[in-house]
Specification:
Elements: H1 2-35, H2 37-50, H3 54-160, H4 164-178, H5 186-244, H6 255-261, H7 271-275, H8 301-313, H9 320-335, H10 345-368, H11 375-397, H12 403-422, H13 428-459, E1 466-467, H14 470-479, H15 485-489, E2 494-495, H16 501-520, H17 527-554, H18 561-576, H19 578-589, H20 603-630, H21 648-663, H22 669-692, H23 701-719, H24 736-747, H25 750-756, H26 769-786, H27 794-818
Antiparallel strand pairs: 1-2
Helix pairs in contact: 1-3, 3-4, 4-5, 5-8, 5-9, 5-10, 5-12, 9-11, 10-11, 10-12, 11-13, 12-13, 13-16, 13-17, 16-17, 17-20, 18-20, 20-21, 20-22, 21-23, 23-24, 26-27
Length: 819
């Protein structure tokens, strides 16, 4: 079978070789022809198209094609039989090949089945040997790596429990002892790469704890400051007691002793102590119990821990700049002064507590650490805080209008200054600022007492104080220094000469002095400075506040003469009481008034000015009342005959003046006399103006005689002595101008007037020729108009000529006087 197959294959191969050789020859010829194909085609197409043999060319081409077809057919017929034989042989070989394949497949299956168990056993042996080798190598490597992993696990546990300083020590041991032994492992490289990150994490966490500590200090600094200020208050109270009772010794330690004696230890082994900042370890204490030290309220372990960690990490202590930078930020938060915080005393107290707590902590850190902060930094921080505090207090205290709030603020500032002074901080600027606030305090007191004085003056009845029994009498005398032997002898009921506002005003002045004294307490001022401050403030109260209130009452439109008289009496008694106010200030300041630089009280001047203003107002009111009565005057200037009595309005006016001057009995004599003389002069002047006013163009002798009756009524009033103290006819001289003028016209004594004019002994010395001419002109016009037929009567003609002659002479006097 195989022999036949090989024979067939050999024949097939020989035929194929022969055909390949013949085709090769043809192809080579074609390739040869093809090499010149372009040129031959070019020549052919050119010759065909250039000549006229196109049809012949197509015939030759067809013949050529047919020739090739025959060649192809011959070749196919020649090889067809060999191809058929080859296919026949291949079909025979396919059957034999399939049998061979089946035999090989069966043999392979049998072989595989026989070797499968052996292969499984060999694979199991191989895996066992590999596992033994791996286990042995793993045990060796784990023995080497296990301490490293244990140390790293310990490190992570310490980091998790926030025991950062032990973790830092473990990290150092791991890095320098264990990791070098296993440095070729990848996890070791990861650990080595992670070590700087762990150090930075420890550094950041410790700094974060420090920040949390500082933030907690800022939040709870008011409690720390409150405790420190309570200590300062207790120490000051103790000092006061000791100064009052020198025999008592001992007592509490000073703040610096307490600070030095408090030794706070850092417990690094306790995770809870590290985790809890422990800002407030003590609850609020009762007032009666002893106040713990301010440092005892704070756990400073985060600061010491961070300082220790930084000393290990950077081989140096915690940088002062890092700490101060954080602390300054917290300090800025403490020093911020919200406007809402200062609306009341509690806001000021909380603000001062925060600042005190801030610097108490800072002072403790300065004395318990080395290199973290220094005195220069503390001083710089205090200067910054002091300047901001003073600026804020100046701004916000200017809004305080309540003196009690300003006084509370002063007490807080004093306690604040004393507390920080106990820790060694300079506080002179605070006391200088208190002197500025003292001026503002005085202004608020003046505003408050201005309202008090207004209420007293508005509610007063301006009547003498009635007294019904001895108890009330002693009470008033105890309130106001008044002594009058005559009043004491009088039986009850009786009256003080002054009204109720005198003792009330006097007591309020004393209250004002007490209020000024309260502000000077604990300011470390000398007695002379306190005395000077009180006297200056009291002078402002008297000369500005009380004086303005009195002037406003005096100038009020509805104030009456009775009230003005009582004000004069009251201010007279208050003026006399000024020496007792001097003694009162001397008693509370222990500074004698004879001291060279002692300021004198200006109360006497104040009450004198008020009294003079009241007197002027009395004179003005009297004149206004007189003018009101004169407006009722209704003279008949053309009356031929006078009436039988004075005018009604004038009788009423004189009655009013009599009743008014009767009230002036308690006034000083000169005041009553001046008022009476002023009223009479004003009445005389007003009557003269009434007689000479331009609207009165004509008047008769009868009208003049009626006017004379009114003047006589006024003179009668002056002679009656409405106010005692006038000598002789002094009061009548107020009407002398009117009297001489009326006598001149009624008696028609022109010859005497003209003859004696200008002489000191002239009977009508007070009659002005201009006034006489005006009045004469009015009578001459009346004579002309009312006596139409006067020219036919010899007497009338003579009178008219006399009037004209007198008028000419008066004009001549006037002209000569002017020249």
């Amino acid at each position: 079978m195989s022999g036949k197959l090989s024979t067939v294959l050999q024949h097939t191969t020989a035929d194929s070789d022969q055909r390949w050789l013949s085709s090769k020859t043809e192809h080579e010829d074609f390739a040869l022809d093809d090499s010149n194909l372009d040129q031959r085609w070019h020549l052919l197409f050119r010759s065909v198209y250039d000549g006229e043999e196109h049809g012949r060319f197509m015939e030759k081409l067809e013949a050529r094609i047919r020739n090739h077809d025959r060649e192809i057919e011959k070749m196919c017929n020649f090889h067809y039989q060999g191809f058929v034989d080859s296919i026949t042989e291949l079909l025979k070989v396919r059957g034999e090949a399939q049998k061979l394949k089946n035999q090989v497949t069966d043999t392979n299956r049998k072989l595989q089945n026989e070797g499968k168990e052996l292969i499984i056993a060999m694979e199991e042996l191989k895996q066992c040997r590999l596992q033994q080798r791996n286990i042995s190598a793993t045990v060796d490597k784990l023995t080497l790596c296990l301490p490293v992993l244990e140390m790293y696990s310990k490190l992570r546990e310490q980091m998790k429990s926030k025991r950062h300083y032990p973790a830092l020590k473990t990290l150092e041991h791991l890095e320098h002892t264990y990791l070098p032994q296993v440095s070729h492992y990848r996890f070791c490289k990861i650990m080595v790469d992670n070590i700087p990150k762990l150090r930075e994490e420890i550094k950041e966490v410790s700094m974060s704890d420090l920040k949390d500590f500082l933030e907690s200090i800022r939040k709870h600094s008011d409690k720390i400051g409150e405790t420190a200020m309570k200590q300062a208050q207790q120490q000051r109270n103790l000092d006061n007691i000791v100064s009052q009772h020198p025999r008592i010794s001992g007592g509490k330690k000073s703040k610096k002793e307490v600070c030095a004696s408090s030794d706070l230890e850092v417990k690094n082994t306790s995770p809870m102590s590290e985790q809890d900042s422990g800002i407030l370890d003590v609850e609020d204490e009762d007032e009666d119990e002893e106040v713990p030290g301010a440092q005892d309220l704070v756990d400073f372990s985060p600061v010491y821990r961070c300082l220790h960690i930084y000393s290990v990490l950077v081989s140096n202590s915690l940088e002062t700049g890092s700490y101060t930078g954080l602390w300054v930020k917290e300090g800025d938060g403490v020093l911020l002064l919200p406007s809402m915080l200062l609306e009341g005393g509690d806001g000021y107290r909380k603000y001062f507590n925060q600042i005190v707590g801030f610097f108490v902590v800072e002072d403790h850190i300065l004395h318990t650490t080395q290199g973290l902060v220094n005195r220069a930094y503390i001083d710089e921080l205090w200067e910054m805080a002091l300047s901001k505090t003073i600026a804020a207090l100046r701004t916000h205290s200017s809004y305080c209008s309540d003196p009690s709030l300003v006084l509370d603020l002063k007490n807080l500032i004093v306690l604040f200054a004393d507390t920080l002074q106990g820790y060694g901080f300079p506080v002179n600027q605070l006391f200088d600022m208190l002197l500025e606030i003292q001026d503002q305090y005085s202004e608020t007191l003046l505003k408050k007492w201005s309202g008090v004085f207004r209420n007293i003056l508005d509610s007063d009845n301006y009547s003498p104080i009635p007294v019904t029994n001895e108890e009330v009498y002693k009470k008033i005398v105890g309130q106001f220094p008044f002594q009058d032997a005559e009043l004491e002898k009088q039986p009850f009921p009786k009256k003080f000469p002054f009204s109720e506002f005198v003792p009330k005003v006097y007591n309020q002045i004393k209250e004002f002095i007490y209020a000024c004294l309260k502000f000077s307490e604990d300011l470390h001022l000398s007695s002379t400075e306190v005395d000077d401050m009180i006297r200056k403030s009291t002078n402002l109260l008297l000369t500005r506040t009380l004086s303005n209130c009195l002037q406003n009452v005096i100038k009020r439109k509805n104030v009456g003469l009775t009230e003005l008289v009582q004000i004069i009496i009251n201010t007279t008694h208050l003026e006399k009481s000024c020496k007792f106010l001097e003694e009162f200030i001397t008693n509370i300041t222990n500074v004698l008034p004879e001291t060279v630089h002692t300021t004198k009280l200006y109360g006497t001047t104040t009450f004198k000015d008020a009294r003079h203003a009241a007197e002027e107002e009395i004179y003005t009111n009297l004149n206004q009342k007189i003018d009101q009565f004169l407006q009722l005057a209704d003279y008949d200037w053309m009356a031929m005959e006078p009436g039988s009595k004075a005018s009604d309005y004038l009788v009423d006016l004189i009655g009013f003046l009599r009743s008014t001057f009767a009230v002036f009995t308690h006034l000083p004599g000169k005041v009553a006399q001046t008022a009476c003389m002023s009223a009479c002069k004003h009445l005389s002047t007003s009557l003269m103006q009434l007689l000479l006013e331009a609207e009165v163009r004509q008047l008769t002798l009868g009208a003049l005689q009626q006017f004379n009756l009114d003047v006589e009524e006024c003179e009668q009033f002056a002679r009656s002595g409405p106010v005692p103290g006038f000598q002789g006819d002094t009061l009548q001289l107020a009407f002398i101008d009117l009297r001489q003028l009326l006598d001149l016209f009624i008696q028609w004594d022109w010859s005497t007037y003209l003859a004696d004019y200008g002489q000191p002994t002239c009977k009508y010395l007070r009659v002005n020729p201009t006034t006489a001419l005006i009045l004469l002109e009015k009578m001459r016009d009346t004579s002309r108009k009312n006596n139409v037929f006067a020219q036919f009567r010899k007497n009338e003609r003579d009178k008219q000529k006399l009037i004209d002659t007198v008028a000419k002479q008066l004009r001549s006097l006037i002209n000569s006087h002017h020249s």
